[in-house]
Design goal:
The complex is a heterodimer of chains A (about 170) and B (about 450). By secondary structure, chain A is an alpha+beta fold. Chain A has a single domain, classed as 60s Ribosomal Protein L30, Chain: A, CATH 3.30.1330. Helices cover about 45% and strands about 15% of the residues of chain A. Chain A has helices at about 1-25, 50-55, 70-85, 105-125, 150-155, and strands at about 60, 90-95, 130-140, 155-165. In chain A, α3 (about 70-85) crosses α4. Chain A is globular. By secondary structure, chain B is mainly beta. In chain B, strands 3, 4, 5, 6, 7, 8 and 9 form a seven-stranded mixed beta sheet that branches. In chain B, α2 (about 60-75) packs across α4. Chain B is globular. The relative contact order of chain B is 0.10. The chains are: A alpha+beta (about 170), B mainly beta (about 450). The interface of A and B includes residues 28, 67, 120 and 136 of A.
């Protein structure tokens, strides 16, 4: 864990902080239908979904029209994978999102690509594919609502939402 | 400009050549009563619609209202201009009394529309009307009569307006039609969306779903009795088929672990095209409604979405980002090698084949703006009809002359509204809705 923290810290210093940390202070839910109702345990408990969301980081960010994982995203996802390995009783839904600069349908396809990129990375890290489901919200659930790049950058995201129960 | 030329040509071929008019260029050379479009500037044709005659007491409340619907339909095309009632010299007191042409000519009414309304037993509404070419001093075509229930009085008005519009422009009718759309509420980061249906002019809104599940991008069947749309009812985006009459719905192609969206009917209504995301890759499939058989039409690692059939059902236009950006492609309806038709700079999406078959409407994203545009089927003669922060999702009127679309404003308080634009790009207007609205899809002409 400590190692990952260092990476996040370093990324923040390098100005990439928004990528790994965006979800931490904006307080909103995961953005999709999920996210709420998983308050089991306090943030301090490393086995809690709250810890996963706020300390490990539940989301990764993407460049315009892209679904390629940045180094910062890989660092976050490596932490997510470790947590999922340590907590096999949980499953996850990975939500793919897009910014508003695109048509509704294209953004649905783009969100699907982003969610899938995250899933593939987690599977490569040893998480069973059956524990991970993907859903795209396209541009339907922005987390930041201004019409500027500062908001768009936060909206081009994939969010790993922890859900209870073993994989089906 | 080609489009304008075509429109002029169509208008010139209206078969109204027996009529004369001093209108526009026809000043010294009496020609047909027609609308002249020159260099993108249309001189709207002045018309008068006196209140329809109520032939019995029960018809009174409808006589004025129906005439108002007729006037609004015609005026809304941008091709006609209504002469206000206070300018009238003559009053029409009986449907069959002779028309005082001189009085209408004096106020420059090129066309006069008169009508009469009666309500029979059981609430049966009958509307009859006549159109006159004032400057030739003769009726334009035969009088017509429509019947319906009193509850459908607006439709009666649309039918009258459609007949007048078709006679004068030579184009197909489109006012007696409906639009299915998404009614929106709530803040930008937690929008609630409901499937809704309304008349083409925003009247008679009915909700088809509640706002518990996110719903997107509905489309009408070719007969207008069924609607395809995408819903998150299951937690995942899936295409549903809804029967308008009884509001029953069923999910199409419910494969676990997949997402489906961007559906569209084939011209015969038996096949549905949809985009299916499997493992992050989105391709186009056709789905036979009777057998449930699914057929893959594209197989590329790129995004293939938003298919739309040509009106004869032989070809499909769709979006693909195989070149690196979204562009438009056409392939045979059974699948096969696609050819790219969009060539301009920018990103192209949501292509829709016009019901006339000659044009493809699309959304274009270029230099930070969104546009609704049209191009020929071979990709030539691209014309952008609108520009804004976010315009998207064109849908064609049943006669292929008007395009409705979503316009969304920028910023934290940004919201969506429906707009329409005619294919000359000249007549842009907001379609009135009670709530913010998006994703319109125009029905065929009602029967």
């Amino acid at each position: 864990m400590r190692h990952i923290h260092k990476i996040i810290l370093l990324a923040a210093v390098l100005g990439l902080g928004a990528c790994t940390n965006a979800g931490r202070f904006d307080g909103a839910g995961a953005g999709g239908a999920g996210g709420a109702g998983m308050g089991a345990g306090a943030t301090a408990d490393p086995r809690s979904p709250a810890y996963f969301k706020e300390t490990i980081g539940d989301r990764v960010l993407f460049a315009v029209d892209q679904s390629t994982l940045s180094d910062a995203a890989r660092a976050t996802l490596t932490g997510q994978a470790r947590w999922l390995l340590d907590n096999p009783e949980y499953t996850a839904i990975i939500e793919g999102h897009a910014d508003e600069q695109g048509t509704r349908e294209y953004n649905l396809a783009l969100g699907a690509r982003r969610a899938s990129a995250v899933k593939e990375f987690l599977v490569a890290q040893g998480i069973a594919g059956t524990r991970l489901r993907t859903v795209s919200y396209g541009k339907e659930r922005p987390i930041a609502i201004c019409s500027e790049e500062s908001c768009y950058a936060k909206n081009r995201r994939a969010v790993t939402v922890i859900t209870a129960g073993a994989g089906s | 400009m080609t489009c304008l030329r075509i429109l002029t040509l169509v208008l010139a071929l209206t078969g109204l050549s027996a009529l004369t008019s001093s209108y526009a260029l026809a000043q010294e050379d009496p020609g047909p009563l027609r609308i002249t479009i020159e260099e993108g500037v249309i001189e709207p044709l002045p018309f008068a619609v006196p209140d329809f005659i109520a032939e019995n007491g029960a018809a009174k409340e409808y006589a004025t209202k129906i005439a108002r619907v007729v006037a609004a339909d015609l005026q809304g095309t941008g091709l006609f201009r209504e002469i206000p009632k206070d300018a009238f010299i003559s009053a029409v007191t009986s449907f069959d009394s002779p028309v005082q042409y001189a009085d209408w000519k004096a106020i420059n009414a090129q066309a006069l529309i008169t009508g009469a309304v009666s309500v029979g037993s059981g609430g049966r509404l009958t509307v009859k009307f006549r159109v006159y070419d004032v400057f030739s001093g003769a009726p334009l075509g035969k009088g017509l009569q429509f019947g319906g229930t009193t509850g459908s009085w607006r439709r009666m008005g649309h039918k009258v307006a459609d007949a007048v519009y078709s006679r004068i422009t030579g184009e197909g009718p489109y006012f007696d039609s409906r639009v299915v759309f998404i009614a929106e509420s709530g803040p930008k980061n937690a929008r609630k969306k409901r499937l809704a249906i309304m008349d083409y002019d925003g009247a008679n809104v009915q909700y088809l779903t509640d706002d518990r599940s996110l719903v997107l991008a509905p489309r009408f069947s070719p007969t207008g009795d069924r609607i395809l749309y995408t819903s998150y009812e299951s937690g995942f985006p899936k295409v549903y088929l809804l029967d308008v009459a009884n509001v029953r719905r069923r999910v199409l192609d419910d494969q676990p672990g997949t997402m489906s969206f961007a559906p569209r009917f084939s011209p015969n209504g038996r096949t549905v095209l949809l985009s299916l995301s499997v493992g992050g890759n989105t391709d186009i499939f056709s789905y036979d409604l009777a057998s449930g058989q699914r057929k893959r039409l594209t197989s590329a690692p790129s995004i293939e979405i938003a298919p739309s059939f040509s009106p004869d059902g032989s070809q499909i236009v769709f979006t693909s980002d195989r070149s690196g950006t979204s562009q438009l492609y056409i392939m045979p309806s059974g699948g096969g090698e696609p050819r790219r038709i969009s060539g301009g700079k920018g990103r192209y999406n949501t292509p829709v084949w016009s019901p006339r078959g000659d044009l493809i409407a699309f959304t274009k994203q270029s230099k930070g703006s969104f546009h609704i545009g049209v191009m020929r089927v071979d990709g030539s003669e691209e014309r952008l009809l609108t520009t804004s922060f976010l315009d998207e999702g064109p849908t064609w009127s049943p006669n292929g002359r008007v395009i409705m679309f979503t316009r969304e404003t920028a910023g934290a308080s940004g919201s969506s509204a429906l707009y329409s634009v005619d294919i000359t790009g000249r007549v842009l207007k907001r379609v009135p809705t009670n709530t913010p609205a998006s994703d319109p899809a125009w029905s065929p002409l009602l029967k």
